[in-house]
Design a protein that fits this description.
The chain is α+β, with helices and mostly antiparallel strands. It is 36% helix and 18% strand. Among the domains are: 85 residues, no CATH class; 90 residues, Alpha-Beta Plaits; 150 residues, 2-Layer Sandwich (Nucleotidyltransferase, domain 5). One of its GO terms (biological process) is DNA biosynthetic process. It comes from Meganyctiphanes norvegica (Northern krill).
Length: 591
């Protein structure tokens, strides 16, 4: 579409019909026409929408002042706008409903959390700034909305010295605003949250190759740039020092904020994508281009955000460079590496040893630990199986304040992470995007023995005596473990697909979920070995009838008949027998 043209909108033609003032904060209608509202205008809009019994975008259609040039976004999308995008454009004009069911929210001020009370200056700066930009209304001695529901304030540290202010819309449990907001749908749209991942950037870098340039731009206080439906002002009250405030914009801590924000920024990424490579994670736009195109793409993205009325956090912008942080991971396209950000790595190395000293652990601490380790697994990919015992503890706890005995088994997960972070320093080579299928690699187990084949190489033998009475699933998993430990040191920095004729093993290798402690130990032993060589593993099922060579190896010593057939294959040169050392069946790491 033509980015310099725009269509007439409801905001332009209907502004005076609702009787709203032209005084107040300096802002615009969605078409760029100068419009200002007073506090009284916002409250009047609230009552009008509530009285209508419909969302503003469906009923009253009162245009809400915004700096966002909705007309320009609409024009740029043109005929390519999807039904969802057309709805999002409407919500930008008339405000985004919280999507909260009736009956939720508490009409009584709550005591703010300690993390808010302890940082009084940060809270007051946030409230003052929000009022100045009309992201909040107030302060009020008496709330202008009689049915106003309140949520407590809290804060968390940011990477700089500031605090991130959050409204705890999840309090009190069971009756909170967030309890009334669906996790699976927004209005009549199914929530499909397809956020880009670290893998998305890896795929792009592999397409371009070493030496390509990365860039990034961020929106400033992104949630606070998007109006909420005036009819929902009654759900967004906060209380500070005896005075009430009312949020008029999306807030950190509100369940629907992330989806609404991503719905807008995805439209902008779609438009920018015609001339630049863009990935967007909420308010964080990033991309990678060949050196000759990177600056133009970076500048185009910045121009587009400004043209569409989005405020950028210019101090966070990263001009094209060979090194950049994306979603907490440091990419280097010259060294061809990815690493945890140094500050985050140091933080983990400092508090993981302290965690090991705990005899009991609270739910809130477990959540923090798991959140950090899940993030770290974007780089240390084998680490995904070293959450299971911690997750097992977490599932037993209901409330954040509840605690549980920190078992030695669960501590082994933490210890593995600590040792691995120290050994690899939170760094690895950028992995390939393409999986390498080892089409001639297969394993098999019989009740007596094991067999593994890779091309013309084979392993065959009887299981150690301590495994004699185990079921076939465990023996199949032991066979995979031994084969990987015997052969995979030659596959450093690859993504490898292997073929197994046991569906239980395939599922375990791919998803890492089992209730069997022994199978979980096998999986941890495998992943610990793979981490040593930066190998990613995927398994595919192969029917037994197509796995005849590995099957023959697994039965080679179970009867004279099978041994004769096996020996015949050796003499024909079908494969060469490797010597497997029985320590390959040992659990070296005690995991």
């Amino acid at each position: 579409g033509n980015l310099t043209s725009h269509l007439p909108t409801q905001a332009e033609v209907g502004q005076k019909s609702h009787g709203f003032s032209s005084r107040g904060s300096s802002c615009h209608s969605s078409s760029g026409k100068g419009v200002s509202w007073t506090t009284e205008d916002y409250i009047k809009a609230h009552h009008a929408v509530r009285q209508s019994g419909m969302f503003n975008f469906e009923g009253c259609k009162i245009p809400i002042p915004t700096a966002i040039r909705v007309d320009r976004i609409e024009s740029a999308l043109g005929s390519e706008a999807t039904p969802k995008e057309q709805k999002v454009l409407s919500l930008l004009r008339y405000g985004m409903p919280l999507n909260c069911e009736p009956g939720f929210g508490v009409q009584k001020p709550h005591k703010n959390h300690f993390s808010a009370i302890s940082y009084e200056k940060a809270m007051e700066d946030f409230l003052e700034s929000s009022v100045q930009t009309q992201a909040m209304l107030g302060p009020f001695e008496d709330a202008p909305i009689s049915e106003l529901c309140y949520s407590p304030l809290m804060s968390v540290p940011k990477e700089d010295t500031n605090r991130r202010v959050i409204v705890d819309f999840s309090y009190p449990a069971g009756r909170s605003v967030n309890d009334g907001i669906s996790k699976v749908s927004y209005l009549d749209l199914q929530i499909e949250f397809c956020l880009p991942s670290v893998q998305s950037m890896i795929n792009r870098l592999n397409d371009l190759g070493p030496g390509c340039l990365l860039y990034k731009r961020d929106l400033k206080g992104a949630f606070r740039q998007f109006n909420i439906d005036p009819g929902d002002y009654c759900l967004t009250g906060v209380f500070w020092k005896g005075k009430a405030y009312i949020d008029t914009r999306l807030a950190m801590g509100l369940r629907s904020s992330a989806y609404c924000c991503q719905s807008v920024t995805e439209m902008l990424a779609k438009i920018a994508g015609r001339r630049a490579h863009v990935l967007v994670y909420l308010d964080d736009f990033g991309g990678a281009e060949p050196a000759e195109r990177a600056l133009d793409s970076f500048n185009h993205l910045g121009w587009l955000l400004d043209y569409c009325g989005l405020e950028e956090s210019t101090e966070k912008a990263v001009a094209p460079a060979t090194e950049m942080n994306w979603l907490g991971v440091r990419f280097d396209t010259v060294e061809w590496s990815m690493a945890l950000k140094p500050g985050k790595l140091q933080e983990l190395l400092e508090w993981l040893p302290k965690l090991l000293k705990h005899t009991r652990v609270r739910k809130v601490l477990l959540q923090k630990v798991l959140g950090s380790l899940v993030w770290a697994s974007a780089v240390i990919r084998a680490g995904v199986v070293f959450f299971n015992r911690l997750l097992g503890l977490l599932r037993k706890l209901k409330r954040p304040s509840h605690s549980i005995h920190f078992s030695q088994e669960a501590k082994k997960d933490v210890l593995w992470w600590l040792d691995t972070l120290r050994e690899h320093k939170g760094k690895c080579a950028i992995p390939p995007s393409v999986w390498t299928p080892l089409v001639s690699f297969a394993t098999d187990a019989s009740l007596e023995g094991f067999g593994m084949v890779w091309g013309t190489r084979a392993l065959a033998g009887l299981f150690p005596i301590e495994f004699e009475d185990m079921d076939i699933n465990k023996k199949e998993m032991l066979s995979v473990m031994a084969a990987i430990k015997h052969w995979f040191s030659d596959l450093e920095n690859l993504k490898v697909t292997i073929f197994v004729d046991n569906q239980v093993c395939v599922a375990l290798l791919n998803y890492g979920i089992t209730r069997s402690p022994f199978l979980a130990s096998c999986l941890r032993e495998i992943q610990s070995y793979l981490a040593r060589y930066s190998i990613e593993l995927r398994a595919e099922y192969i029917p037994s009838k197509e796995n005849c060579l590995a099957d023959l190896c697994s039965r080679a010593f179970s009867s004279d008949k099978h041994f004769r057939n096996f020996n015949k294959m050796l003499k024909q040169g079908t494969f060469i027998l490797d010597i497997v050392h029985y320590e390959k069946f040992n659990f070296e790491n005690g995991l």
